Amino acid sequence: MTDASVRVRFCPSPTGNPHVGLVRTALFNWAFARHHGGTLVFRIEDTDAARDTEESYEQLLDSLRWLGLDWDEGPEAGGPHGPYRQSQRMDLYRDVAERLQAAGHAYRCFCTPEELETRRELARAEGRPSGYDGMCRDLPPEQIAEYEAEGRTSIVRFRMPDEPITFTDLVRGELTFSPENVSDYGIVRASGAPLYTLVNPVDDALMEITHVLRGEDLLSSTPRQIALYRALADIGVGKGTTPAFGHLPYVMGEGNKKLSKRQPESALNLYRERGFLPAGLLNYLSLLGWSLAEDRDIFTMDEMVAAFDIHDVNANPARFDLKKAEAINATHIRELPVADFAAACAPWLREPYAPWAPEQFDQAAFEELAPLAQTRVTVLSDITDNVDFLFLDEPVADEKSWQKAMKPGAGDVLRSIHSRLAELAGDAWRAEPLKEAVLAAGEAHGLKLGKAQAPLRVAVTGRTVGLPLFESLEVLGRERTLLRVDTALAKLAAQPGT
Ligand code: GLU
């Protein structure tokens, strides 16, 4: 197969919010397509009107765009195999279902759910396979007429071949499923609505998909799907080839349980709102089952694309590790040119994240501190707390920090600091002389710099931790710094024992 003939698909159902498992699947398909110079088809599997929402559809598109995972065919991009929303392809599925029945690959099944359940239980009790028992496989026309006269409804069931299905999974190697474990299955509901089990392979066939890379949770449906591709080839739907499959490993969350869509840490929006960079998040998600090299966790998407080989994906479950995701993101943040970092922070420097009014914000002051913040934030949203002292009229009131820094004696130290700082003015109001002044004030009280600066930091920023203090004071300016120390001293005076 030439490289450019690779066609993969990302085909989510638009239910709920996009989650990290979904993004991992999209990413691996995208990297595979880009590595081979092939085509990524983005298809929306919206055949479940009760669960699909337009909001979720919009979010999917928006998320892929934000991440930079571009698609070649699909919504908005168009393409020769459209429409790419299954809800707009219903006539086509109906037609295929009829042709499958006409060719004997599928049949009408009149068993009621109660009958199925009774027989399933019996099979279980007798230790037989509990899948569909083939009751309606070869109904004579009179029996069908009788069922219809009774007013029974029917679904359409696909007839599985009686021999084993073997395929070579690109991640797991050769797998064989014996017929007793893969029974005939429904492809059209009694209402006439086609099921996912039909429409997903039909579209793979029509869209000429060559490789299916998807989660391990779908592995058990693969033999059914392969049988269906063969039947589709038989009735002339698509080009007649069966795609190769690669099942990506499970992602485990807390307590070694599968990370579920419902767990908060699986929601993509959480990462976006906290200020993960797409490059950082994708870098981390690529490690869920793959690695560039044993000793290399940090890389760009270009590097991933160049190196990506589906055969290198590990079949063992991957563990989702938020701390590692954050550390990788922090590294990507540090690697940005500082101007890009400052620009990327913009959303967290205004409403709804920033606690200051828009007119209090000063871009030039922010840019002075941006290089110092860049090496300290893990996610971009950390920026807000790091620079709020610059834009708020008063530092945030953080009682814990106050208690920690304003121990007995803190007032005396602060007073000394105040008088030394007050001596600095104009050009002397710079980080280095500011530091010397605080050092000298501390020494007078027998304190090292770290201890001496603690009450000053809380007086000025409200917090015990933050950006380098003296650079912060330089940007904040003499007047505002001294005023804040005055305010803290007044508060201390009203508080006996300090
Ligand atoms: N719509 C299916 C899902 O979201 C896609 C399964 C597949 O990739 O084949 O689970």
Can you walk through the features of this model?
The protein is mainly alpha-helical and 498 residues long. The chain has helices at 20-36, 54-67, 90-102, 113-125, 141-150, 196-206, 222-234, 268-274, 278-286, 301-307, 322-334, 338-345, 363-374, 382-391, 399-405, 410-422, 431-444, 449-461, 469-476, 478-493; strands at residues 7-10, 39-42, 106-109, 155-158, 165-169, 173-177, 185-188, 211-215, 244-248, 251-252, 318-319. The protein is built from 20 helices and 11 strands. The model has no long low-confidence stretch (mean pLDDT 96). The structure holds glutamic acid. Glutamic acid (GLU) binds next to loops.
Write a short abstract of this structure:
This protein is mainly alpha-helical and 498 residues long. It has 20 helices and 11 strands.
Task: Give keywords.
498 residues; mainly alpha; Rossmann fold; Arc Repressor Mutant, subunit A; three-stranded antiparallel β-sheet; two-stranded parallel ribbon; elongated; binds glutamic acid
**Whole-number mean pLDDT:** 96
What is the rounded Rg?
Answer: 32 Å
Q: Distance between the terminal alpha carbons, to the nearest Å?
A: 79 Å
CATH topology name of the domain at 89-248: Rossmann fold
- Indicate the low-confidence ranges by residue numbers: none
- The structure class reads mainly alpha
The ligands found in this model are: glutamic acid
**Percent of residues in beta strands:** 5-15%
So, CATH architecture of the domain at 89-248? 3-Layer(aba) Sandwich
> What is the assigned CATH homologous superfamily of the domain at 89-248?
HUPs
Number of helices: 20
Helix content: 40-55%
The rough form would be described as: elongated
> Largest beta sheet: what is the strand line-up?
3-4-7
Characterize the largest beta sheet: strand count, sense, and whether it forms a barrel: 3 strands, antiparallel
CATH class descriptor of the domain at 89-248: Alpha Beta
